[in-house]
Amino acid sequence: MKLIFHGHDERYVVEQSLMALFPGELPVYEPVLPGDDARAEITCDEASDYLVVTCDLFYHGASGVYTYGAPLSGSEFDREGQRRHAIGACFYLARREMGLPDLPWGMLTGVRPDKPVTQALTAGKSPDEVRTMLEAEYFVTPSRAALALETGTAALEAARDLSPRDIAVYVGIPFCPTRCAYCSFVSQSVERSFSLVEPYVDALVEEIRAGGEVVRRCGLRVRAFYMGGGTPTTLTAPQMDRVLTAFCTSFDLSHCRELTVEAGRPDTITAEKLAVLRRHGVTRVSVNPQTMEDHVLQAIGRRHTAGDIEKAMELVNRCGFDHVNMDLIAGLPEDTPEGFRRSLDWCLAFGTDNVTVHTLALKKGSRILLEGLSVPGPEDVAAMLDYANPALRSAGYAPYYLYRQKYMSGSFENIGWSRSGGTCWYNIYIMSELCSILSFGAGGSTKMVDGSRIQRAFNPKYPKEYTERPEKWRDNQAAFAAFYGS
Ligand code: SF4
Hints:
Structural class: alpha/beta
Bound molecules: iron/sulfur cluster
CATH topology of the largest domain: pyruvate-formate lyase- activating enzyme
Radius of gyration: 24 Å
Mean pLDDT: 94
């Protein structure tokens, strides 16, 4: 879509709005040519304390114009925020004038739609005022406003329990048995990268031991541990044992609230591996069937059946972990609202205390896009989520964290649901940026958080590069130590 600006150059907010509100459209800045039938002309007229924005949209024969006025006050930083909000709101309302349906999250385009909630609650607004603000100023639907209020409140509660020297630790295992059709992670099929696994574990153990030393020297407390990927249980039981031994002997875990390990693919779960997890005090495992429909499992490239998931879940149950999570995805290729309902009902009947409901995100590099697989439309995805949310609530689950990704079907969200006491703290810490995350392994992204000051350091993306370049993680750990003044 051609973008034309008058009186401003707010590219970021307009581009984000464009990509969220007109999926598939990319910003183009060349002059408008005869025959261009997708354009947005945004004009800002600013006096000292008032701003008038006009957005004129033209899209494949339909048009919509809106004029939005907003007061400006405070510092230049405050005024910049007010200006961006006015432009985003005006763009959204011009789209509405075109007759296009409202979106669940209104004009919110970011990863964390509950961010305005935590900011407003922290500033002293009441829950009712926050709900009204989301609906009136951001055009969020009432059901999504209620969700954001719940997860934003959960984030504030989690923050109250953290001190400035609390951190969380992440360990990444970037291997999987096969590659799922919707995946765009760096994760590699273990069949193709088998020879990389053992050197990877060696390098990881070395990095973890060095990281334990840094954390001790800086006087930090580990509050949560999360091993993800990839599929960590792709490792053999002895490899898993080596990684967890390195972690448990290198860090003081006396203040750690939880140890979570993703056992995402049922075809990687064995009694021997689960016994290793139990022996190291793992409190939560996450099994991620994504669907219980065999033909959908086949369509996404899984080499197991729903029957295998049931067997793996029974094995997990017998081990007696404190918490178990199951992930589902709404909108998978070949799935239907009825199929999704059967999958969710199965999870509810099984009764794990955590269920995470994702919405399919159509990511670049995924097989779904590369091979053009057909996926359910936004109405079907809406029907899946419309079933999931009340069904989870009536089964005793509440939403505790929430995030969005780019290119999500129907512009919905991912929600973590838990029964009382089942919250995965790591998920809240990372999503709401409540504390630093020290990450180990390929693709690890260490985030250093001090209030609103955030610094990042990235490990090499691929296992081979990670194994061959230990100097990169050493530099990252030095940056982490420097951040904490050690
Ligand atoms: S299990 Fe997860 S990381 Fe592995 S291929 Fe599937 S989506 Fe990607």
